[in-house]
Records
---
Amino acid sequence: AAAPTSNFLRAIIDNDAATGHYAGREDAHGKPLPAVVTRFPPEPNGYLHIGHAKSICLNFGLARDYAGRCHLRFDDTNPAKEDQEYVDTIIDSVRWLGFDWTQDGSEHLYYASDYFPLLYQMAEYLITAGHAYVDSQSAEDMAASRGSFSEPGRDSPFRNRPADESLDLFRRMKAGEFADGEHILRAKIDMASPNMNMRDPAIYRIRHAHHHRTGDAWCIYPMYDYTHPISDALENITHSLCTLEFQDHRPFYDWVLERLAEGGFLKRPLPHQYEFARLNLTYAITSKRKLLQLVEEKIVDGWDDPRMPTIVGIRRRGYTPESVQLFCERIGVAKADSWIDMSILEGALRDDLDPKAPRAAAVLNPLKLVIDNFPENDTVECSAPVHPHDPSRGVRTFPISKTLWIEEEDFMEVPSKGYFRLFPGNKVRLRYGYVVECTGCDKDENGKVIAVHCNYFADSKSGTEGSANYKVKGNIHWVSAAHALQAEIRLYDRLFSDPHPDAGGRDFKLALNPAAKTVINAYLEPGMASTLPDQRFQFERHGYFVADRVDSQPGKPVFNRIATLKDSWAK
Ligand code: ATP
Ligand code: MG
Ligand code: MG
């Protein structure tokens, strides 16, 4: 593989390596720790999408390139929206993308909920040390006293209550004595800070809710901004990468770590948070909430609908893990938000599959071609390379006979200028078969062409000496009608026809592309009957296709179009 392109994060890591900032560390068992430890921290409240893939490739990719390690950590501190179903699909998606969290036989798979007891102890310490207090204001009063960007906040009347009173209340919060929202634990920082996130942010709230892993053991839950830095430190993370919207949260991230390091709960050197631009992909949406809406309103056929930008959707569509990795490498990481064009994702798929995908013939829009001078009931075997640039992959064979299927577009009764395919009096090559000369066509009562007629030249077969005597401009694909495999093909295209479907809070449903899914019946070369689910092909002249992993049956594959051969959206 090519050397990874440098970026600002690599520069930071290189600098830390040069100064030895994270060198010589050991874990709790005295085992040496790598100088680069990253993590991918999803909340198990939905399916991963292409934006998450960027974060996964970035975190796992850096760990791989710097001989470090990357943890998969579930940020499961919000019981209301989380579920085991999501944990399972996230694990599956990260694995499918090609990444692994085992190192030297140890699995680096973590759950923030496993830290609940420690997070609680640390909160008690913060109270005792005067860094946190229980606030008993109503939610409305708390919101009102927070101030605004132009106006400092006001201290809560409970801010200076004695530490042992806060501690007692906090313990009773934990014991379940209070209802949701009655009290809250807050960090004691600065209600006049220009950074709203430093105005005594909440650390713990009461939530009488069942947690998918801890059950009913807790009725108070730590906030994300409190949990995240501690989880990072407990796991000896070095570079904690997150998206730009967390930039204003960084001072609190550092505040939490400093206070707990002072208290002897955490070891230095502490992890550091860095922010990078999130992925915004044109013709797609990457908001969990909006994706959920598409599923719930049955606008798509589920999370793994091949039109969805979810990882399960992209996978079912036929994208390879390598193509997604290539895409993430190509887009790089930057410190400013921008839009990435969908054509870059599609281009990565083409570049990945072109050298890999076996070729096959498929007629998507069939029209009958009759070779009038071909012996009735006769067949001749034709052969074609599995891959045109790699003879070592052998050949595929299929018969030619008197009646074939060709594409409707490959015949014109009256040719337009520059049209070299079938029209009366013109010769074309039936790819890997014979040269034929068109003699005319049959029409139905409405004047629609229903069959094309031609004669073939018996000495023109591809691969034989005589074929060199025939110079024709047109070269079309075909399948023998009596031998073809009939198969359902789903022609997928971009889900939205507008590059920014949800721009400016617009209703993204108005931007849906009605042509994003077209189901057709096609004719394929006969060998395709043995296709296994998830096998990918280039259907010559059409694009890249995959046997659908859910709906394909033995001997009866169903295909999804992953991408056309060329970008049909380029302006
Ligand atoms: P929410 O917070 O609404 O549940 P989320 O998209 O932030 O949704 P998380 O599960 O918290 O989802 O995300 C896990 C990681 O993926 C985070 O580190 C987050 O920064 C990163 N991530 C999420 N969306 C994108 C994106 N579009 N581009 C790059 N990284 C992303
Ligand atoms: Mg999040
Ligand atoms: Mg988010």
---
Amino acid sequence: MDVEKSFRVEKTELMRSFLLTDQDQDALQRLEEFNHLMMKYHAVIREVTTKLEILNDEFSHSKRRNPIETISFRIKKPISIAQKLRRKGVPVAVDSIMSTLNDVAGIRVICSFVDDIYAVAEMLIQQDDVRLIEKKDYIQNPKPNGYRSLHLVLEVPVFFSTHKEPMRVEVQIRTVAMDFWASLEHQIRYKNHTAETRRIAGELKECADVIAQTDLRMQALRDEVMKQQE
Ligand code: GTP
Ligand code: MG
């Protein structure tokens, strides 16, 4: 017996039994397409995360230390996807997502030292199935508020049952110190609705600059210790 057929409910039957309208049916169809697309973004996250883990393993094998401290990821929430599509002036539709947005899939890589960021980025970009779509270096050129990180938009082919598809993912690479600043700045900015906004922004910028100097001092210390070991 074909088990699948035995419990499969035909659309028309479901519509009749549950009094679904044509509109309901459209919504179900969109939900299906949306979930399918999110599955594909999850796939590219897994692929790129694996690439990063392999690089970290190899690096720690040859250089006896890990350039990557942690890797985390997120898939953009439906509400944020819709808001961004609206902001960009395109229809809020599943079809618009792939063609308009680069950051539905996001990976954050936290490195130990500043030069590890560039080493990891380079090792990733030079892989022959990885295409660099966009690079924003907020370390060389920090944002006016003090934000530092290296942002890459990558396109990587993902193999599905019948075809392969190039999928985009945004990779943010930063040091532990840059991440510390970014997450606290995010919390403070979110809660700050006072008249003191300008002073607070100024102090946040000062903190960012202190952190950037500290990052470079730590790197210099590491270099010094490594030289002594040689
Ligand atoms: P969107 O992608 O639409 O946000 O604009 P954009 O492309 O100009 O932004 P960008 O790629 O520069 O930065 C996007 C992401 O970087 C954000 O979602 C944050 O995760 C992070 N980011 C950028 N600027 C800041 C900042 O000032 N503070 C913090 N905490 N995070 C930031
Ligand atoms: Mg962006």
---
Amino acid sequence: SNVRSAVTDELDFYGLSTPMELVETYGSPLYVYNENVLRRRCRELKGLSSHPGFRVNYSAKANANLSLLRIIRSEGLVVDAMSPGEIAMHLAAGFTPDEITYVCNNVSAEELRNAVDHGLLVSVDSLPQLDLLGQVNPGGKVMIRINPGIGAGHHKKVVTGGKETKFGIGPDDGDAVRRILKRHNLTLAGLNQHIGSLFMEPDSYMEAVEFLLREAEQWDSLEVIDFGGGFGIPYRKYEKQPRLDMEATGRMLDDCIGRWAERTGYNGRFMIEPGRYVTAECGVVLGTVHAVKNNGERRFAGTDLGFNVLQRPVMYDAFHDVEIYREDGVPQQETMQQTIVGNICESGDIMAAARELPEIQEGDIIAMLDAGAYGFAMSSSYNQRLRPAEVLVDKDGRDRLIRRRETLDDLLACFPEHAEKTGGSV
Ligand code: LLP
């Protein structure tokens, strides 16, 4: 039997099909999502607080597949958007405008107008953007993003709080904010923050929660207080990395907001804004091994999983667990150091470096685990490769296509000169 599929085996991740069958049916590389895992994560997050105003605001930049958004909505989560594209996706998934918050950064008047016209509450994160929103929507409601001066995250590229990041309005800018609000007759209806992505201990998050609640006491018009996301997941499951303690986090959060609301008489909403925690673990990406070779001491398994498909390992040196599947199972045997690489023409195209794994063979199917967040969402058409298909394994274990693989027609469709000659076809 397979020594390197314990994690997905335990979840019955692929339902009624094997990973080999999924690749045969839908092609390779392939993103596969499991509905049960997704629903479980939604429920865990909703259970963090029993306060009646508590909402989980899914940060859709992690994964905006329409079918997944529909499931997330059916679990009672609301959603954030940060581009016109995300607004369009959310509306198509059935979210109503009061369920969408626009949390943007450095956008045009036109974009602000688009969000306002859709009836969304908009959060701005600088004084000039606040002024611009005032011009676009005088007399309206607005939310501002505060930079609490506290940061957290798995890599410096994803720490969003603190003085060295581009985000948020500083806590000392209160007077300037008031002047701009007054100038445009705006009402400050919400505060939000986001300190960064991926914490495994709740301490700095809770520190930031307390900070934002102190800030909130200076305003009596608030309807929403949004503490941001960043809830981490264990990427090293084969090393038994502990999970973030959601029960302890929930106790602290629930207690903190409950006491604060009681003391201040606040009866608006409290939100958290997780992306990764909602979708990371419900997704894997499957690829196929095409060539195995030794370059000197190094053993390379060459696959179709390049950083066009999964960018995280290259962008952040991120670690994803690897599983190996073969028709007749991967035998219990000695492991060896192997480096899993993709098919992109850069030597940095490394998915997993020097891993101790059972011997990988040509024809094997490889899974990169925990790829449901910032996986497909960050994929690209670099080297003019087509973006992969996405498949859902539903509650009953049945699989279905939820995004078709891109085609060569999709690739060429944006070139007007090509379209003129061919009527748009390859
Ligand atoms: N709210 C705001 C305003 C954000 O900018 C983000 C993520 C979130 C919420 C959700 O954060 P999460 O719960 O997913 O940590 N591509 C990187 C992560 C970038 C996060 C960007 N902002 C990665 O793959 O690790």
